[in-house]
Amino acid sequence: MLEGELSVEYKEKTAVKEKRKKTCNKKPPKPPRAPSLDVANQKLIREISELAMLKRARIERMKAIKKMKAGKTSSSCSNIFPMVFTILFCLVITFQLPRRQMLV
């Protein structure tokens, strides 16, 4: 009989614990707020954030310039002139070789 009473009491305790668990489904408490900063620290934080914004803007400008340079195709005239000059130089050298051999 003693065992029966223990099992009944155990069942009642577990039922009470289960009820408590079900009622505790509330939101967790908010974390405590950080202490407010004094004027000097606020000014320092403001300056740091301004520097970060300027740096970000500078990086964005640099990226835009790189994209413009990459997208910019060089004109064909600027490529043709050095090529013509090189061909003429090679032709002059080629025609000079047989004359030198005749002179020797």
TrEMBL record:
Coiled coil: none
Ranges annotated as spanning the membrane: 76-97
Biased composition (Basic residues): 18-30
Compositionally biased tracts (Basic and acidic residues): 8-17
Annotated stretches, region: Disordered: 1-38
Signal sequence range: none
Keywords on record: Membrane, Transmembrane, Transmembrane helix
Protein name listed in UniProt: Transmembrane protein
Organism from which the protein derives: Quillaja saponaria (Soap bark tree)
